[in-house]
Fold this protein.
Amino acid sequence: MYVLKFLLLIICFQVLSLQAQDNYILNGQIIDSTSQTPIPFAHIRLRETISISNQHGKFTLNYSVSDLNAEVTISCIGYKVRYVSIVDMLKSTNVIFLLPDITVLGEVVISELGLKLSLRKLKKMATKTIKPQSIQQIIHLTNGFFMKKLTV
């Protein structure tokens, strides 16, 4: 009986070790295409996994064999979103260039009464127009959202 339990335990550990070998790490850097400077705190998303570049624009992303053809989304406020597959990143030097996205804002007027009305109207408009069905839609709608998938 003990031998059977021991063999079952060994088989379980081998199965777990085979699954662990399926994970790989990709290192890269995000660079501004015009100034050639690193972009800090850019978001790198692969399905449910999100990584953020450090102050030097460097990042680490975990992926598996099943993710090789998946699209990685790279975004940062002030830059255009870029989509790259893991295969393309592995073929290159893992340096990703982002193009600046300059948005000119219109005139902003802030007054005590106008601000209260504007915030009320904005809240009302947002709750009427944005009705996400899941957290994934919220993440897709916002570039500055951080979420880390917890695995147990």
